[in-house]
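Hi F.,

I've been meaning to write this up properly since the lab meeting, where we talked about keeping a consistent format for the predictions we share between groups. The idea is simple: the sequence comes first, exactly as it goes in, then the structure tokens exactly as they come out, then a line or two of notes. No screenshots and no reformatting. I'm using this chain as the first example so we have something concrete to point to.
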Amino acid sequence: MRKDYSTSMANDNLFKSVKIKNIEVPGNIFLAPLAGFTDRAFRRICIEKGASFTYTEMISSEAVVRGNEKTFNLAERAPNEDIYGIQIFSGNAASAAGSLEKLMHFKPDLIDLNCGCPVPKIVKSGAGSALMQTPEKIREIVKALTETTDIPITVKIRSGWTADTLNYLKAAEMALEGGASLISIHPRTRSQFYSGKSDWSCIKTLKEEFDVPVMGSGDLYTGDDARRMIEETGCDSVMFARGAIGNPFVFEDAKAALTGDSQYKGPGEEEKVHTAFRQLGFAIEYIGEEKAVKEIRKHLCAYTKGITGGSAFRNKIVHGNSFEEYKQMFDEFLSELK
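Output, unedited:
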């Protein structure tokens, strides 16, 4: 059940639209771009559950320029994705701008530049959080993007490379000089990866320093977390990442928290299982059965955490190799839950 807010808080509706240059997002609860997770099937489910805006998985500008078919598949829009963004990573202004011509085929509403991914393979290419070491290059890349398209260019940053080199304000300044329309920040350093605590004070400082929409991320797992982040930092919107994996219902929870709805109770166990199975069906529709039944495993394991008998069910589903096998497993599991 929703946390019992005071009357004044309950009457303070924090669920609002977000204006990003020439587009208006109808709410302020976003799904982060997550490589290997935020595919069309999952984004479709998240939108059904209340996500205001979704991004594709992170896409390589270099791969787009080379015409890589697998990369183009990542950019496809889900059928209920009325508004969405494509996130790219690049360490080179020319390739970033060069990729836009092909990406515009998908008619994204905005392009987001990733300056936060800590994965070594991305960093070694000079992209992702490597750009936090050279904030002037962020300005160069963003400027090349804004000069190539009229749609909004947004930028996702980290708080810095290490705890001794917190330069998120400089990175944001460079992004804005290049023409960025929104800054999102995951307030961990690259050296932290995903460990430790995110420092929400960085979000607050960023919002106070610049007159631009600011989106906060980091340690968001419940609707109450979303409300607390907005109240503590003044950010315009929140972005759920790992907290949404296996839990797309967090968007319903967040909307209830931001509107002060204390009646929201969340999904039951059967609804979680049914939703997981629907996502499998969407994945098969989009990428084919052979690939979908393998890629869905990590999602199904996440959906069933905390569910009665979930551990035994996970031991079975990691061996599923066809839709029919999964269907039989789900039917048996559902009958045990009833």
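Notes:
The chain has 16 helices and eleven strands.
The radius of gyration is 20 Å.

If this format works for you, I'll send the rest the same way.

G.
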